[in-house]
Write a structure and sequence with these properties.
This protein is α/β, with parallel strands linked by helices and 208 residues long. It is built from six helices and seven strands; from the N terminus they run E-E-H-E-E-H-E-H-E-H-E-H-H. It is globular.
């Protein structure tokens, strides 16, 4: 089943001037390189090979914008923390992501994709901090849960929940392969695309 049958790729941005106009509603997917962002997007949208996936970490180095329906976008953010890229390149990513989160009013939700075997890292926290500064809703997908035993998955969920306890961030187990947690992730995405009235009011004119 395709959740957004009309979804299509819009553009890739390597710098802030290439971002799409800051209007409508936008949900971004962030996560370490190889965490499974593109696979999660494909599974949630119910579209094979919609966002590219790769076995080579760090392949998606641009910010990719997709249209879901008119006025609603999905954004695949470049993976961070890939050890084998140069320091310079890592700095560029940080700058690009920093520019993206800087006052992005249309960002109504952030999905942070975390490999359930690794747990939440410093970069994930950075994304959550930036997103929270924008007052946008945050949700963590502990993905590749199919690679864990039931017991390990429960432990990973408990650990992440405890770590995020003070941050008002929801967390769930997910697998693009087994489709574990797919219905919940879809519900969250749809909810994020409809900003609550309180949020609209709070982000009135002049408030970044
Ligand atoms: N077993 C399993 N493998 C997964 C899952 N999700 C992703 N993978 C695999 O993990 C690898 C990376 O997945 P991607 O979706 O390309 O990861 P990404 O975060 O988009 O990576 P970059 O764009 O390079 O940062 C691929 O080989 C996927 O097939 C999952 O839920 N279960
Ligand atoms: Mg990717």
């Amino acid at each position: 089943m395709s959740l957004f049958p009309e979804a299509r790729f819009l553009t890739s941005a390597a710098r802030a001037t290439q971002f799409l106009p800051d209007e409508g509603a936008e949900v971004a997917f962030a996560g370490r390189s190889n965490a499974g962002k593109s696979s999660a997007i494909n599974a949630i949208l119910g579209r094979r090979d919609f966002a590219r996936t790769s076995k080579t970490p760090g392949r998606t180095q641009l910010i990719n914008f997709f249209a879901l329906v008119e006025g609603q976008r999905l954004v695949d953010l470049p993976g961070y923390g890939y050890a084998r890229v140069s320091k310079e390149m890592r700095e560029q990513w940080r700058e690009l992501l920093g520019d993206y989160f800087d006052g992005r009013q249309s960002l109504t939700g952030l999905m942070v994709v975390v490999d359930s075997r690794r747990g939440i890292g410093d970069f994930d926290r950075q994304m959550l901090d930036w997103a929270r500064a924008l007052d946008c809703r945050c949700h963590v997908l502990l993905t590749k849960a199919d690679k864990l035993s039931r017991q390990e998955a429960a432990a990973a969920l408990a650990a992440a929940t405890a770590e995020l306890g003070d941050l008002r961030v929801d967390v769930q187990l997910f697998s693009a392969t087994s489709k574990l947690g797919l219905a919940e992730a879809r519900d969250v995405l749809e909810g994020m695309l409809v900003p609550p009235l309180a949020l609209v009011e709070k982000k009135g004119p002049g408030q970044a």
